[in-house]
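Researcher: Hi, I'm a grad student and pretty new to this. My advisor asked me to get structures for two proteins we've been looking at. I'm not sure of the right format, so I'll just paste the first sequence and hope you can take it from there.
Model: That works fine. Here's the first sequence with its structure tokens right after it:
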Amino acid sequence: MTGLVAALWCVGIGLTVLTTVTLLGWVAAPKTALGHGLSGVFRTAVNFWLVSHHAGFSYGHGRVGLLPLGVLVLPGALLYRGGAWMIRGLGLPARPRIAVAHVATALAVPYALLAMLMALAVSAPELHPSAWQALLACFLVAVIAGGLGAARAVVAAQVAAEARGRRVRSGLGALLRLLPDRPRSLVIGVAGSVAVLAAAGAVLVGGSLAMHMTESDRVYDLLAPGIVGGVLLLLVELAFLPNAVIWGIAYAVGPGFAVGAGTSVSPTGVFLDTVPAFPPLAALPEPGPAPAVSLLALAAPFVAGAVGGVLTIRTMPSATSEAAPLWGFMSGTLTGAVVAVLAALSGGPLGGGRMATVGPSAWQVGLMAALEVGISAAIAAWAANWRILRRPEGEEEPARRRKRRKRKARPAAARTPEIAVPAPAPVPEEPRTVPEEPPAPRPSPYAPGPLEFEEAEPVLAPRRPRGRRAPDPLPELIADEPAPPEPEPAPEPEPAPREPEPDERDGKVVLEGHIVEDPEPEPEPVPPPREDPERTENRGGAIYVLREEPRRD
């Protein structure tokens, strides 16, 4: 429903503008030139509206397909605004590319159907617009213009949501942001090449008009349109200006163009016959060899290829090694396809007979442009990629450095100056002592194991070193086999007396050459007898039975 409302809005405003212009021409021109009565004026306005979408028509002397491309600005601007209005109602879509495609299709379908119905409604024997051309042309114009408007609105909403402070100035720039990286590089390269070719064609047309201004004034005086007619004639000339620029591109590429059957205007020579009395056609060169100055335009395709190849490689997300010439040639091939489409739209029949062939040949211009622009783009892409690969890793490209400086300087320039207000005198505050918290221990990079073991406590106390002391009241322990607890173990035999060591001298100790009597050791206190005379201990898996016996003197 939103697409139908936007389509009706675009159709209504476009018809209103063209009906007003047609009424002005009907008042200034003879009454039968633009139709009989107001109904004829409205029918003529509808035909002009169809022509503005590049939909042809037929009349008694043949078909008219040579249509002005400049009139596309009116429906294109309306559809551009219509697409932006439709997608704003959806908010910020999660999938912007699919949302833009849906909006463009929803706008183009009802718009094309309305155009076909109007073409059928105003059809008459003396003037018969083509219904299928109206359907196809209006659908394509609505898809392209509405899609660009929707894309710009989506990207503007994204920029506003991200608060980056940037502005999208054109639908093409918004469309580039929605494309993937590699296709975006190709589109930028093709746009650069087409821009160079268009500049060359505009220079050719402007220079030729300046050189043949006298012939143009003579044709204007011959027509004698008057004031209102002169204004309308100027509007028609401006509408055909894009066609003239495309014809200049065809001349620079090589094949040139024709102004009637059997004619040719190209760098190889100029062959002309009688041409219509239209002031811009007075800029055509004289029959014979092509002007020498115009031959400089033959370098335009190679310059365009160099620009396109460099732009394609510079905007790539990453540098390529062997594929750089292939990407450049692909950019040149796509440029040739675009030029072929423009050549087909800029020409067409202008009635029957000799004027059935007007304009450049689309396939010849496209093929020559693809070869010339493609080869030069491949060489330029290889050279640009070689320079990028030789650049040190830390060095940044000049264009990217300038862009980064602009982004940094833009917020500073946009910042509003603040009024300096004297601040109050600072009041000294007592220092606050904040207890310092101990630093938290650094976590271990290793995760703890699922099982942790603790060191078991020793069963027996460590044994003291053996020294010269009184004999232990307990007898020496003899490791026996574990026995059942019922029978008593047999008494242990008495240990044999220990022989004195040679250092012992009968109770005498030699100390620094003097003999000192060894004092008798003090008797150690006898521990009281235990309640249980026997106890057992486990040492290394063996069971020992400990028994206390009275001390022997």
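Researcher: Oh nice, that was easy. Here's the second one.
Model: And its structure:
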Amino acid sequence: MNRNSGTRETKADSIHVHMVVGHSFAGSLKLALAQTVGPPSHELIVLEEHYAIGPLGGLDSREGRAARSQWFGAHITDGGKAYDHFEEEYTILLACISRIPPQAEVILWAGDNASEQAGLRHSLYLLRDKPNPVSVYNACAICEKLFNRPEAFIQYRHSGEIPPDKLRQALLTIDGSGRLTLEERSWLEQEWLDIAGQKGNLRIWEHEAVTEVPEDYFDGYLLEKLDVLREPGDGLSLKAARLLGEAIGYCEQNIPEYFFEYRLRELVNAGVLEIHAEPAAMRYYSIKRKSVELHTRGEDPDMQQAGESGSQPPGIGKAEYSLEATPQNQPLQLQTPRLLLKSGNDVTSEAVLDYFLRNKEFLAEWEILRQPQFYTLEAQKQMLAEDKVNSERGQLVKLWLCKAEEPERVIGSVALSNIVRGAFQSCHLGYRLDGTEQGKGYMTEAVKEVAAYAFQKLGLHRIEANVMPRNLASLKVTEKLGFYHEGLAKQYLRINGKWEDHIHMVLLNEEME
């Protein structure tokens, strides 16, 4: 679990202040704003909490924040470390809100999920003494309306799943229709007080309301997914990461991986699952069925009847499973005949900075405009840290390329970004290569390996690469690997200060039904 300092200093001349829940959405919105409105008259304030998880009672008091920190420390992997500076972070958040200039409109963003909706209500409570006009917009709903088609439909579970290019279009639709009345503000502030008065540690979005449910609400769902992935009697191990990925991918609620990890540990403690090592981080273990005895509800007198708990879906009864430790607790690293593909954990920020400095002029034609700050060690350290957060959230796989004979020298990168699960099972592909290594087949070799990983290990169905028509070398890479031309997007991305057309090149996992 990771938390980064998310608040930013609000400037006296700001005309819009955006308040969002979560760093993933904040990063995409920041980029979309930069591409849309230009000068920094729009500021961001980020609420770091995942409001669906953990106690919220008394969050606006020091005692309540201490209780939340203690709960995460006791139940969530690395939760105590993540909340080491919670009190300081909260003080900074309050200071940023207090300094919102009176002329600024406050724009709150919230998708239809418990975390963002509770965060929206908390934001309004924190703004209760500010006279600024406040508007509310749902980026998920806007983008679904703008881009969904009968043949290509995405239902976003949270705003962090939306890529910056789509957010850019969403920003252009803002017309003032989201402005809240004083009565609406007061009503939503009271809803926050109701939420904060609850005693539980898990919330879902149901019937247009943030609803408290028991902590074991998803336990049956996890076991059901395990039943689907491994049939009774199957002795093969299943990576716990696969179970968690499946659970997250198909869950209609926005529940973080670390909560599902916590529930697996609780199932171990309850004797439903069995493990042969200390489950400090469940994603590093394999899971297989030990023995199974399934009953329908009503057949097993020990099972609660439907409606009493809501913790298990119909059809799931008692089951025992086994978790076995595997050596998979190492950072991801792939290898081709000539290349090592390393995660950010295995490269140094100095090596990454050296790569960008060497290729500053060469890459300029093909990438967004870079500020001077980008070419500093501090910026590269921050980038690697942000990549790690997004990787742990399952939204990014980024690998740095090194030649086998020069394992410490970075010559490029390949990334699977904007990974979306559920019905879509898709991602975007991006890659870059050292100018002195062009024409040697390195990128074709690397992308082939990463695409195989995306299909065979991540279980994705679609990889989309967006390539400028004049970037013939990049088009050649995708064509060699079987990507097909899906269409042309006019003025799709702002590259080197200019809006550029891009060709959608797509590769499908033909082995998936």
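Researcher: Is there anything I should tell my advisor about the second?
Model: You could mention this: Residues 461 and 510 are 8 Å apart (CA to CA).
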